[in-house]
Design goal:
heterodimer; A: alpha+beta; Alpha-Beta Plaits; two-stranded antiparallel ribbon; 7 helices; 6 strands; B: mainly alpha; Fumarate Reductase Cytochrome B subunit; two-stranded antiparallel sheet; 5 strands
């Protein structure tokens, strides 16, 4: 079975934030929740690079390991999903996440953060809802994977900087790009998320 | 082989605790372009671009700028998360198991080897007021809130191992959700109780010369010796100062976690959680010993915090200097001392 991953080719990202907008719209993400974001390194300086980042759906996901109620688990495709019915909003996943992916509807307020929300790789939720149902959609957002589609952020990317899909395929695409154009700043986050880089 | 691996991971975790002081270099190094057949012909826009490896070699986390108002989202990658994961899932569990079960083992050994410390001269039947009702209220306010905080706190770390398999995921999430709220709100009762205790008893807990003798003579655990003590003996003073220090540390770190991003970033919260959990576990171990000596370990000790009065002979044997002061102050009638059988 395919191992689903994201790969952001920072040499192509133009910081248009279309991925962010696509994600918010497709999943009806509540105000103040940032499932995906674009961070610019060395903004305004030579060698500036922008990286689109969301949950990387890590191998041995630290959020899943530290969750006190074990509500986070990977699917067979490696997509890390969680159950909002079991989540207690403690914030531990958010301390453990290397990518700042977990988000909470409330901040502060004596630790009542509300149910954690994060990128689902457009694969619905990890709860008991029927996949593709309206209940699942309301709680977690779209289940595009079920429909045979990839996450909308990557599908919408104007420069095809953001790649989503089978690990081997997107790594191959990136490898070919780097070899063809002769440069590449690497697959951002891969070392931390998957403990394996794309070798060119 | 396994041990050395554990040591290496432990050192890594310690290094993680130390990186807070890591100096941030002024310039990020430029990256050498990857080898390529086209290298001579293409203009390489990467010549001055940094990559993830270079940045992570120089900085503990990668940070940039972001267009959305949530500026905290500008942290792109913080690999510390995985070290915190290791701390929480491995190191903390060992610390907890060793501290709590270790203390229980020590106390059980103490009970079976030394037995209960009896009042050597037997009970005199004459009560001496040791703690006023207000003092007892402050103690029990702190004590009950401590027990509630300890149980709900242990649940968040050990509940998924100890309780979840027994009651199932849904019931456990419900319990954990309420435990979290109870933990957060009970903290205020604990802090109020601790502040009252400190204000009330700090003057009686200043270390004195008599404490050194008390400690040197084994704190009453050696039966042939009966070291005297003031209102509080050195053991009680140690518990007092530990409770003050540990209580302050868990309160500060706890409130930092209750109010995320008010004073700390994620790294600060990781450190706060490390401090909070380690000190809380040690606190629980120390309080287990405190509970043991106040109940099972020593005859006549519990009533000081129960009814407030202790037996005259208990006071003579354990807090002789304090009893003399009470007599001098006229709170205990001098003739009662002679009524009681001599030690």
């Amino acid at each position: 079975m395919a191992r689903m991953k994201f790969l952001c080719d920072a040499d192509r990202c133009i910081e248009c934030n279309a991925c962010v907008t696509a994600c918010k719209n497709e999943n009806q993400v509540p105000w103040g929740i940032n499932r995906r974001r674009v961070v610019t390194i060395n903004d305004g300086k030579p060698g500036e690079r922008s990286v689109s980042m969301a949950c990387m759906h890590c191998t041995d996901a630290p959020c899943a390991a530290v969750c006190p109620v074990t509500c986070i688990a990977p699917t067979p495709e490696g997509v890390v999903l969680h159950s909002k019915d079991l989540c207690i909003g403690c914030g531990y996943c958010f301390y453990a996440c290397p990518f700042g992916a977990p988000q909470y509807p409330q901040r502060g307020n004596f630790g009542s953060r509300g149910k954690m929300d994060k990128c689902t790789f457009c694969a619905g939720g990890g709860g008991t809802e029927v996949p593709g149902s309206i209940d699942e959609y309301r709680k977690y957002g779209a289940n595009r994977l079920l429909e045979g589609k990839l996450p909308l952020c990557a599908e919408m990317c104007s420069t095809k900087s953001l790649l989503a899909g089978d690990s081997e395929i997107i790594a191959q695409i990136y490898k070919e790009r780097v070899l063809t154009r002769g440069y590449g700043t690497g697959a951002w986050g891969w070392q931390t998320a998957y403990r394996a880089d794309v070798t060119i | 082989m396994f041990t050395s691996w554990v040591i290496i991971r432990a050192l890594a975790a310690l290094a993680f605790l130390g990186v807070v002081a890591t100096a941030i270099p002024a310039n990020a190094q430029t990256q050498t372009p990857p080898a390529s057949t086209h290298q001579s012909t293409v203009i390489d826009p990467d010549a001055r671009a940094v990559n993830e490896h270079t940045l992570l070699r120089e900085f503990p986390r990668i940070q940039g700028t972001i267009l959305i108002p949530a500026q905290r989202e500008a942290v792109l990658i913080q690999p510390d998360g995985r070290i915190w994961d290791y701390f929480h899932e491995v190191l903390l569990r060992w610390i907890g198991v060793v501290a709590i079960f270790g203390m229980l083992a020590v106390l059980a050994a103490g009970y079976f080897l030394l037995g209960r410390m009896r009042i050597a001269a037997g009970r005199s039947g004459i009560p001496v007021l040791r703690f006023t009702s207000f003092e007892r209220f402050c103690h029990w306010l702190t004590a009950t809130s401590f027990v509630v905080l300890a149980l709900t706190g242990l649940n968040i770390t050990f509940g998924k191992v100890a309780l979840r398999p027994l009651i199932g995921p849904d019931a456990f999430s419900l319990v954990a959700q309420y435990a979290k709220y109870i933990h957060n709100y009970t903290s205020f009762a604990f802090v109020i109780g601790l502040v009252l205790i400190v204000a009330m008893w700090i003057k009686d807990n200043i270390p004195r010369k008599i404490d050194i003798t008390w400690l040197r003579e084994g704190g009453g655990f050696i039966r042939s010796k009966h070291p005297t003590a003031g209102r509080f003996n050195a053991g009680e003073k140690l518990v007092f100062w530990f409770a003050l220090g540990a209580g302050a540390a868990v309160a500060v770190s706890g409130y930092l976690l209750i109010f995320p991003f008010y004073l700390t970033n994620i790294f600060g919260m990781q450190i706060a959680q490390v401090v909070h959990s380690i000190i809380a576990l040690l606190f629980i171990a120390v309080i287990l010993a405190h509970i043991y000596i106040g109940t099972l370990g020593m005859e006549g000790a519990f009533e000081a915090m129960g009814s407030g009065s202790v037996d005259l002979n208990w006071a003579k044997e354990h807090h002789g200097a304090w009893l003399k002061e009470e007599v001098a102050k006229g709170r205990v009638a001098a003739e009662q001392l002679s009524v009681a059988p001599a030690e």
